[in-house]
Amino acid sequence: MDISTRMLVMPIAALLDRWLSEPSRYHPLIGFGRLAARTEQAIYGPQQGVTANARRLRGAASVAILLLPALTLATLIENMPYLGALLSIAGLYLAVGGQSLSEHAISVQQALLAGQLDQGRLAIARMVSRDTQTLDAEQIAAATAESVLENGCDAVFGALFWYLLAGLPGVVVYRLANTLDAMWGYRNTRYRDFGWAAARLDDALNYIPARLTALSYALCGHTPAALRAWRAQGANWKSPNAGPVMAAGAGALQIELGGAASYHGELTQRPPLGFGRRAEVRDIERAIRLVQRALLLWLALSVFGGISLA
Q1: Residues 6+ positions from 50 with CB-CB distance below 8 Å
Q2: Strand, coil or helix: what is 115?
Q3: In the chain, at which end, N or C, are there fewer CB atoms within 10 A of the end residue's CB?
């Protein structure tokens, strides 16, 4: 499938995601997560007596064992006559999770608007890895906006970028690597070394998509504030890719994100992102709309490019 065809496939997959959202059962990424958990259990080894380098090698081997067969299978599928094109569309649809991201965020917003703080904490716990039991309404709103902006790259624009660049094999490897990073990419005792390869691979695959996402947020929101926040604050974040994305997104919305957050019982002081007032409940929907406007920009460019190159 050439690049012009991929450009025209992208809007089809995005529309399928908007109409159908993600499957409620039997999503391939859920099955892959279970397989990754079993692989970790088999390869991780004893907690004690394993050097950091050996643990890194085990983690890298786990990544290779999981991704190389998937890459091979995706390549074979894409090269199938006729059926390969349909399966490629289905694969991209399953990789793009923009509608699901919006639905999760709206459920948080609805709980907060109804004054159901406990329900809001439960809903945001499905989106973030931080401790949520003691968050107040403002903190929940900020955490949700952060998640929407960051996952706009992971679940939407990164998938589209790698599909455009490398077809079905590219998007499959990207989304599976992203899943492994979500499972193993923690800087704690268990995963600091074992998850090193998954985290570095995810960083590499997201480097360009993250900056394209940040630029898209800037173009679709308050551009001067977004560019200023990206330039001044993006590099301060612990993640080299989430920093530019979230800084530009916060600037585009003219709100301030970041600040203190608790992870696994430890309070972490995170740098501020963006400028202006702290995030409020209404900013959840504003963040969703920013991602949607950026997606429309990408799809408009893909259709124009696909028609021009056809």
Answers
A1: 58
A2: coil
A3: C
